[in-house]
Amino acid sequence: MHGYKRYMLFSILPAFAFLALFIYLPITQGVLISFQGYTLYDMNNVKFIGLDNFKAIITDINFPFIQILFNTAIWVGVSLLMQFVLGFVLALLMRKPFKGRGIYSALVFYPWAMSGFAIGLIWAWLFNGQFGVINDILLRLGLISTPIGFLSNPSYAMISVLVANIWYGVPFFAIMLLAALQSVPAELIEAATIDGAGSTRRLFSIIIPYIKPTIVSTTLLRTMWIMNFPDIIYGMTSGGPANSTNILSTQMINKLLQFYDYGQGSAFGVVIMSLLFAFATFYLKLTSTKESDAA
Amino acid sequence: MRKALVVLVAMLVLVSTAFTASAATTLEFLEVMTSPERTALLKSMIAEYEALNPDIKINLISPPYEQSEQKATLMLNTNQTLDIIEVRDLSAKQFVNNGKLTDLTEYLEAWTDAEPMTAVANAAARTVDNTPYLIPANIYIKALFVRRDVLREHGIHEIPTTLEELVETAIKITDPSKNQYGFTWRGKSSEIKFSDLFAAPYVEELKDAEFVYTDGEHHFRESGFKEGMELYIKLFKEAVPNDGINWGFNEQINAFVSGTTPFLIQDPDSIPLLDKMLGPDKYEVHPIPVGPYGFNYIDYGFAGLGIPSYSKHKEEAWEFIKWMSTSDKNGYYNQHYGPLPVHTATFENNEHFQGKHYVAYNYEMNHPEIFVPIPYDLSSEKWPGWAKIHETDMQSVLLGRMSLEQALGKWAKYWD
Amino acid sequence: MRSLLKAGRALLLAGFLIAALGPLYWVIVTSFKGSQEVYTLPIRYWPEGLSLENYKYLFSISSFDVYTKNSLLVSLIAATGALLIAMLSGYAISRFKNEKTKMILLLAMYFTQIIPTYMLMAPLFTSLAKVGLTDKLYAMSLVYIAMMVAFCTIMAKGFFDQIPVALEEAAMIDGCTRIQTLFKVVIPVTLPGLAAIFSFAFINTWNELFLAVMLLSSDRNMTVPVALNSFISKAGVSWSVLSAGIVVSLLPTMIIFAFAQKYIILGLTEGAVKG
């Protein structure tokens, strides 16, 4: 239909105009840099070196690539899972009205409103092995007898940064899922209740399938954001101790800011992008359904 | 007749705008060692300069410290309008390499009434290619900060003067059950400056070296260096909480202020901070301890002012830099902000820098045979990223994941 | 049994609240502490003497009111712009008939989210500098719209997906054009989702630090996160003034949140969905 096509085109034009100008165009240049020997020390000698940057970062003896990949997988996987589960639980808890729900939501959602670097700083301070509030509370409660070096012990460091990240990300899922839950038609749930479905059945057979599109988009989006959000790790441990919390995006920052190596930094960026793109394609294919007529 | 009138009016307008246009030149000034207090200080000094020079306006750009180097690099490399740029030790080489700084030799030669600067300041100015690309304004060198009250509590009355004594004293004080430790460790971000301070003076030849280490010239295979490192590691194991591996500047200040660790090695810009958080009478400043050969090296950090190579107002920028670089103004600048001034006169005349907290720094600067000024080779291609590699390896060693021998071998290979 | 569930629910809600507010409590307490109290051992959970000196200092040493105004302006424009554009594009993609093109469009949107900002920064700065758009607040808004529009589109599409097509078809049969259907039928039902998207777009741009530092220079153009970040210097973190700054900067975002969640929590009004 002529009208339909024209409508669609004009609807997506503004969005893509912005994206083309401010994102697609710059990123092509950014990606090109990953194939060049581009260090800040010698900007006049930028030359094409093919895949050398990639080879270099994969074989780096100082920051083993395998460990970085492993850390990244843990960082993204655990963060996403816990944020989603806790966020969903919170959304379910908040679904039915209660007194003071308005103020409650403004308060319980605020972690998302905090600046990334501030979160890193605050949690680093809370987790401090000598003067940290968490250690202090644990000691006072008698749960431990000596302070724990949360950020200096490689085994605990990753858990600590994960706690901070989970704390930060729960509101995102809670709000989005709450909004999605609100749009589930009351009639649908009533019908199911009348049919004798218990609350668990209702949840898993009616509600979750109904809000599936939101679940898919929020989890995928959040995966990408978690991957590309090194602020918390950088503020708490700088990727340490001994590379134990170093992920792809923190190492990318290291290469850019400490090593002045834009070529290798961009190579890390390309690795991140490729992994996320592959994941997105796979994930979307896996979760796509035909248009359901839920009415 | 009307046409002539119109032309006359137009000419008048043009002429008057030309006058007003040339009436005020705006200089763009980018600072990199940004801090809220220093920015306020700079703004007031700029206001003073503008009052003295009504045809000059200076626009101060103050990106946050964590991003400032990035921003400076980006602006310079895209030839953004800049007339005065603060250049720090870490970025000098990079700016020069990319041709973004003006060679100030001729300007200096023409500056006949320039006041003499300290040896360290002069060296700082000529860091890159032995050519003055910047006029230094702030100097950072390390000294030993001491909590005398904590020491007294533990029956210690002597301040250690050698590294060995420092380690012994620190260990003596340490009592983990009372949350009392001996030394304020630095575990991340520039930790190399602290570990080298302990290990390098164990190599006697360092005294005559040009750089602490550089391409092909290093001492990681020397037994002396190993000895120094072992002493440093011993310090960690017996006088520092394990958490120290992750300590940065903030944790160091926290430990020192709360009395957990009575010894702290730090730069002079910690002084205003400690005055505020601890109180000026609660701590003392002493020269850094020396190694077994009676010396230690002083690595001098610095920040100064330079002129971008493409600036369109170099003369005016230079006038401002000269004004900031009199012992009077430079002294005022540094006394409110903390680090050391650059002129010899300031140390002699400015009361603030004769105060009790600066005596140690003066001593260090005036005894170069004991406190030998040796910089890092910031111009070496191997320098960027080296601190990060060292930090990761050092953490591995302290965690027991890498042996000291392995680390030393790795570092030797890196600098070979 | 019912009261047990109710108690359980209350307990869990309280737990979430404590977990969320805990760190904030610490920041708030620190903001009222004097400089000499910040680093004490044992840890003080209540300041010795409540003082407003940090807040006074915050506004005297930096033009925090100007920065707040800047951030509000930039974020409101960016969030509104992004949302409006996303409503159009999200709806279009959701209703796209060709599955293949739909997937491509969607992936094109997701593509923007996989890009690390650091990779974008240098080329973006260079291009904007060439056309003189650096150090301008309105240009910042435009950049932020671009940064947010993909996320907003994706989320909007998700919410639109949940609205059955039958609903719109009914409206169109009744004589509405596509645009009218969009605004009169679909959007009211997805209002909770749109309010959520708006709050996120607002907050994400409010907290954005890196691009703001690079693309803005003059003091009068600074935004709140840049100002907060500048309390970290070579001499460490000025906790006293930073904690005060964090508290002050949270207020507008919490207000926006509170305002938006009124719509988020809005249940379905009667008659909005007919069988």
Overall, the morphology of chain C is globular
Q: List unreliable stretches of 5+ residues of chain C.
A: 267-275
Helix/sheet category of chain C: mainly alpha
Spell out the helices and strands of chain C N to C: HHHHHHHHHHHEEH
Global Rg of chain A: 23 Å
- What is the count of β-strands of chain C? 2
The overall pLDDT average of chain A reads 89
Largest interface: A-C, 105 and 105 residues
Strand content of chain C: under 5%
Major pleated sheet of chain C: 2 strands, antiparallel
What does the average pLDDT of chain C come to?
87
N-to-C series of helices and strands of chain A:
HEEHHHHHHHHHHHH
Radius of gyration of chain C: 23 Å
Task: Explain what this protein looks like in three dimensions.
- The complex is a heterotrimer of chains A (295), B (416) and C (275).
- Chain A starts with a helix and ends in an 8-residue tail after the last helix.
- A two-stranded antiparallel ribbon of chain A has the order 1-2.
- Chain A has helices spanning 2-33, 52-58, 65-95, 101-108, 116-126, 133-140, 154-182, 186-194, 199-210, 212-227, 231-236, 248-257, 262-287, and strands at residues 36-37, 47-48.
- Chain A has 295 residues and is mainly alpha-helical.
- Chain B has 416 residues and is α/β, with parallel strands linked by helices.
- Chain B contains 18 helices and 10 strands.
- In chain B, the strands form 3 sheets. Chain B has a 5-stranded mixed sheet. Chain B has a 3-stranded antiparallel sheet with strand order 6-5-7, with helices on one face. In chain B, strands 8-10 form a two-stranded parallel sheet.
- With 275 residues, chain C is an all-alpha fold.
- Helix content of chain C is 72%, strand content 1%.
- Chain C has 12 helices and 2 strands; from the N terminus they run αααααααααααββα.
- Chain C has helices at residues 2-31, 53-61, 64-94, 99-113, 117-130, 137-161, 165-173, 178-189, 191-206, 210-215, 224-229, 239-264; strands spanning 232-233, 236-237.
- A two-stranded antiparallel ribbon of chain C has the order 1-2.
- Mean pLDDT of chain C is 87; it is low at 267-275.
- At the A-C interface, helix 1, helix 3, helix 4, helix 5 and helix 7 of A face helix 1, helix 3, helix 4, helix 5 and helix 6 of C.
